[in-house]
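Much of the work behind modern protein science is quiet bookkeeping, done one molecule at a time. Below is the pair of lines this work produces for a single protein:

***
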Amino acid sequence: MSMPPDRPWRPDRRALLLAGGAGLLLAACGRETTGAPGPAAGVLRASVTGRGANDMRLLLRASGLEPQGYRVDYSEFQSGHLVIEALNGGALDYGSMSEIPPAFAAASSRQSFRQIAVVRGDVNNQVVLLPRGSQIRDLAGLRGKRVGYVRATTTQYFLIRMLQSVGLGWGDIVPVPMTVSDGAAAFSSGALDAWAIYGFPIQRAMATEGATILRSALGFLSGNYVVSAHVDALADPERARLIGDYLTLSQRAHRWAAAHHDRLAPLVADAIGVPVAYVRDQLARQSDDYMLGPVTPAAIASQQAVADLFAEQKLIPRAVDMKPLWDDRYTRILETA
């Protein structure tokens, strides 16, 4: 998306608010998912969101951990709300995302997934980026600016909370909902004044374009990320067993990564195509290492607070209760692994 600098784009506010959740809600509402065809025997269909330090394919290879007796078929996604759409469409058995996309899905008439585990992790890899030479000096400087974000994700949530922290609201900026790849192109071309984004695009923009970080999401995000599974997979004893085994492998892989930043950094740098020094810096600045654990009351309460904010901001059509979307059947496995 490109916008001439002499004609700043001012989208219709109502259209933007609807865009924040409409695509996800339509995807969730419009598909009959229960009974959808599952994968072949001995196959678990799992998501990978982005590349780099959270790519479970990379972590399993690096740590020497591999599924035994079954195959994992991975599908790549740019953001968690697309993972939810795939789960609701019956295309995945297992997927991970932040707390935010399920809050949008909960406002629909159908949810074909349950949240089965929690990853506690870094929030310093979620930031508002500024282009080289920007004159914006603080969050208040975002007033009236074109700010890119990814709808129904952490970027929308932490951007709202950042604005609130300086007395601004969603209507005080020009919010531009974009995919990760479209956001990267718009940021590079100068079509955005700021970009709320997560993961490896941060290091890439800093390394190749001289981008700087205005503010990280530390203090605005909980650090909780959720693992979800399709209801049909959970109802199938064999696929439910594979999910439990894969959760255990993922937990061990996260532990390996936390203990081996030195070995992880060059692998991540190679995967995302940036100098290893940038990855080492990002790992050193982490607010927390990623660790996978069971469902807890605190995690449920944290996500409920997220959903309440979106309802208050009228970014979802009604208040929702998040608790029914949680399933704690894997608690014993994750506590003893």
In short: Residues 1-35 have pLDDT under 50 and may be disordered.
